[in-house]
Each structure stands twice: as C-alpha cells, then as structure tokens.
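Late entry, written up from scratch paper. The run itself happened at the end of the previous shift, but nothing got recorded in the book at the time, so transcribing now.
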Amino acid sequence: MSGLSSYLMSTLSRVGGLGGSSGIPDFPFVVGEKVATVWPWTIHAGTSTDGKHVSIFVFDKPRGTQYVGAAQNALRRMRTLRHPGVLRYMGGAETSDAIYIATERIVPLDLNDRNEELVRWGLFRIAEALRFVNEDCKLVHANVCKDAVFVTDAGEWRLGGLELMDVVGAERPVYREMGSVVPGYAGRMAPEIKVQGVQGTAALDGWGLAELISECYTTEMPLGLGALHAQLRNNNPKLRMTAPGFVEAAQRSGGVLDTAFVRACRFLESVAVKDSHERAEFFAGLGAAAAEFPRVFAQRKMLPELLTLVEFGGADNGHSAVLASVVQIARDMDETEYSTVVAPAVVRLFASTDRALRFALLEHATALLHGMHDDVVVASVYPAFATGFGDAAPAIREATVKAALSMAPRVGSKTLNSDLIKHLVRAVADAEPGIRTNSLICIGKLCAKNGPGVTDTSLRYIVCPALLHALRDVFPPVRAAALAVSGACAMRWDAVDVARRVVPAISPLLVDGERPVRVAAVKAINVMVAHIEGHAREMPETVAKKMDKVGAQAEAVADLAANGWGGWAVSSLSSTISGAISLASSVSQSGARSESAGVRSEPAGVRSEPSGIRSEPSGLSEPPQVSQRPSTTINSPTAVSTSISSNAAVSQSAGGWEFNDDWGEDAADAWGIDDNDDDSWNAQPNTTGGMTAVADTPVKLAKPAAITPVIKPVVKPVTKKDTKPVQPRRKGLGAMKLGGGAKSNPVDQFL
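Output as recorded:
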C-alpha cells in the first residue's frame, strides 16, 4: 500500500492537480524526474512556477519511518540557515506521506570528475560554512562528509546533510540519538561522541572536515595540506584544529588555499568592501588570469558576478578592465547560454547613462555582440547605441563611430541604409577633426566590404555628397581619408558620375600643400581613370542617329578634332558650319525673291546706309570669348558657304573638313582677323549687290592659341558714324519677314 501511495504522489507531483502547481499544499514547485539518491532522500529535478530550475529532496515517510525525525530536523534547519556555503533553501512542505525540500539546482559531489582548483575552492567554502555554523549560529553539523556536500551548476560546493545538526552543548543531541541509524556513521564519527556526558563542540566538525579531506585525497595530499589534516584528526578535542583555524592556516602565504584562483574568488565575494585602488589593481590582472580558471566555474559563477558588479557601479572607473574580463570568459560560451547569461545584462548596460560605462561598452562592442541574436540587437541595443552619435562628449561620439563597424553587420541592410549610414555621414561634419576622419574611414570600410552592406543608392545619394564635401576640409587627414574612401568606392560608382562629378573635385588636390593628400589624390585618380577607361571601351562608337550628308561632314570634323591638338577649335567651327549650311538651305528661296525685288535683309532695329556709316563695338566683358564675325551677305547658299570657308583654318574637300597648313602664327588670319583691321566697320557694297562690313581701324585681339574661341557666323551691327553703338536685337526665323518692312537676319538664330 505504501508503494502505491508513493507512486500516486509522484504522479500527482508531475502533472500537478491538487493544491498548488504540484498538487502539494504550499509548495509552488513541480516535481520532475529522479536524479540521485542520498540518505535519506531521493533527489528530483523540478521547476518553480516562474520557470526556474530547482532540485527537490523528497523523503517518503512510509519507506523509512525510523528516519522521519532526521528528515524533519533537516527541514527545520534548512529553513533557518542562510549562507553562501550552505545549500540554498527555496521552499519546503510536509504532508502525511512525504517531506519536500526545494533548493537551488545541485547534484551530489562526484570526485571522479574533479578539478584541483575547484576542490581547493570547495574545501574553502565548506570550511567557511562550518565556521558560520559553529561561531555565528552556535550549532554543530556533526555529519561532515562527502555525502553532505553538493555541487551547483557552476561547480561550487554547498554544505547540506543537516539531518544530525544540533546546538552546541545540547544534553540529548540529535547526533547521539539518531547516529546509529545513519549508514556508515559509526566509522567516521568523532571519538568523543561515543563517550557519554561529553558535550559536543566545534571540534566535532573539525573531525568531519578531516574526513572530507581524506575522501578528496585518497592517495597523496598537496604540499602543506597533510600537516593541517593531521591537526584536524587529533583525538583530543581540546587540541584538535577547528574549521575556522583551518581556513586561517590554509590561506597563509604558500598555503594550500593561497592560489590565484582562490584569491580571485575570495576577492569577488568581498569586492564591496575593497577600496578603489585594490579594485583597479585586481581587475587589471583578472583578464589574463581568467584564461587559466576552470571554464564552467568562470562562466557560470564569476561571469554573472562581474556583470552585476559593472551594472551596479562596483567597478568604479575600471569598467573597461572588468568588461575585458567578461569578454575573455564569455568568448567560448555557446549561443544559448550566452543569450541567457550575458545578453540580458548587455542590453541593460547599453541603456545606462554612465558615460564611463558606455565608453567601455563601445570599446568592447565587437566581442559583446557576437553571441547575441540579431533581432535582440536591432530591437534592444541599437536604439541606445545610436544616441552616442549625438552625445555631448566627443570621446563618446568617436567611440560610437568606431563601434559602428561592429554594429553594422548585426542590424541588417534596412537599418544600415536607412539610419546608421546617415548617422555616419552627419559625423563627417562633426566639429572634431578626429571624428570626421574616423567617420570617413568607417564609411569606406562599410562601402567597400563584400556581401550585404551599403546599397548603390545610398552610395550615390548619401555617401558621395559627403565625400565631395570632405575633399574641401581644412584638416589634411580628412582630405586624405576622403580620397582613400573615394578610391575604394570608385568601382561601385557610375563611370559617368565619376567623370563629371568626382574627378573634377579631386583634381585640385593633386597639387595640395600636404604630401599625403597629394599621394592619396594620385591613387584615387588612377583608380577612377581606369574605371572610366573600362566604361569607355564598352561604349558604342557613336550615339548619334543616321545623319545626312551635312551631318556626315560634321562627324568627319569631330573625328579629325579628336585626333589633333586643335580639336577645341575645330569642334566649335564644325558646329557653326553645319548650322549655317542648314540655315542657308532653308532660306535660299526667300533670299532670291528678296534680291530680285531689290530688298536687303538687315538686323531688326538697325538702320543701314549706302556708305560712310561705321559702327564701333561696345567693348568685350570677357576677352576669352572674343571672336571675328564673318561677312553675312545672304543671297544664296553658295555665298554663305564661300564667305565662311574663305576665312577659316579648315578647308572643305570631297572627304570633309580638314586642317590647313597655315594653322600657327597666322591663327588670327585663319579666323578672318587681320592686325590691320579697324575697330569699327564701314558698310561697303559687294559685288553681289549686298552689304559687307569692312574694317578700317586696327583692333588688338587675343589670339586663340591659349583661349577657346567661340565661332558664331553673325552680322556686325551697322550704325551711323560717330553715333552711340546700338546693341542689335536678335530674332529668330519666326520673326523674319519677306517682301518689305524691318527684316531680321536669318543667321541671328545661331547667336
């Protein structure tokens, strides 16, 4: 019947059906699978109502009626003891059939899989717990052994097995009344327990500590531990070493507990009472020492304590050193464990307003973010991170810019192009030159990296304007950085944009006053020229449509200009010739009718007279635009063609337009300009019956060798002699009238 009762209770505990979540009154825990057996308990895995994992000690009363008193004593003592070295009590309950005790998740001590550093630290923790029990609580454990020690997930030892615990000097102590029912207790109990009338003291637990050491080191003990063990095993209780005496002796210089690992663990436990100098010195060396610590213990015990220390200000100004230790310890953690232990703390730390802490976080951003999910980074970390771009402290702004390289791969392409890259571009205009320089370098690395990153649209419309602005920066390293970034991004830019926008902006820096800037400019130009050349090779020979005979002649002129040094002059002249010929063809019939009727075409608003009339030019505002205007008597297309080609440096042949041999010192003559010409013009009748402007006063004009001339076949306005020059009013073909009245010259449309 008792077996059936236990089975039913275990089943109800798993599914939870009676009172509370587990079916046990006032016990908010769910009993899970059996894990181990330690007298008089069976240890089960369990969970609390808030989802925390726990261990549950279950004592089945019907199966051990003689042990009920010991189990009840353990429950009573567990409820009243709170110490880091004592098994942490989380809840308990007693029913008519069983006793339940919920504790932190533990397993029984297994010395087969051991670490020497953890064993030494475990002995220290048990000895410290016994000192607390003996000196502060005035209790005697009376059953210290391997079965009374449990190990947490972090590898720390905890003191349990409180079934025989009683007060010091009790008349009828529990360990005497019930020691006989404890398996193996007679062989390990202290000699004075056997003597009736002798009151138990702290020496009892000294004997038990020696028993635990013997179980840990069955063959050979570490140097210095053997002598202490012998003192703990003294048969005379008055001469026997107690647990507090063991702790003091073992921590002396060169003692068994004087190791770097034990010292670090002890310091972390008492860091709140250490001064700032001691904390700074400790944290400075912790990162290197942490690599030698037991991995599980460092990740599950030391790491949470370090994160708590940073979060609540216990690190003073040593945040960077503490976070360096955190990074060192957490680098080998799997993603699941990292997300559980480290990620929540990192999210809270980034939300802090402490500038020293934020600066340290930004310094270690790469390592701290590597184990976090991208969605957590975007939703919880990035908004707080982005506030650093606008921080009042330049150091925070600069650290934020540097950390952007670590943040960019984690936030995704959408956030990168819609927000992060814009923050970096704004930083290019920061008041601090160092921040401007680092921003450009960061932008260059983001734009030049392979894989998802800055899109071509962002590169063209956001990054390119910022780079062009930075090329004019007064700080030379900023200009050099902008040139380096431009060269790195050149192959992603459109070749047309590079040729029209970027290269002209970079060209002045080829002669910059700073040598590093000049060198960077040359490198950038070379990359861009190569990019443009590659694009040009893929372009078609021409983008023009099929042209007629006149168009073919203009194309021949363009080809000739591209192969000659005077291409600038021929290009301008060819466009003039093509336009004049086309115009002459369109108005030939109108000109013929005008000539037969004895009517001449003159510029509108300008009065012509047969002779003695001279017009003085109105002065040239821009000397480079000076050009000689040819005769403009319009009688026929032949007259127009002859008038223009007679004064040009290009002759028309069957194959098109060609350079004449007299292009050189007589360049002015080639343009129809004579040094003996007057600066005013007389209207003289020509052989065809029209009016031709003839110069009679010398005019000093610049030669087109160094200045690009603009050739426009226009008519020089004719006015009365010694009158104020009249600016001709230009009209197009739409205003030309035939047969009478004021007429506009058809060539004016080219002006």
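Residues 265 and 302 are 8 Å apart (CA to CA).
(Scratch paper discarded after transcription.)
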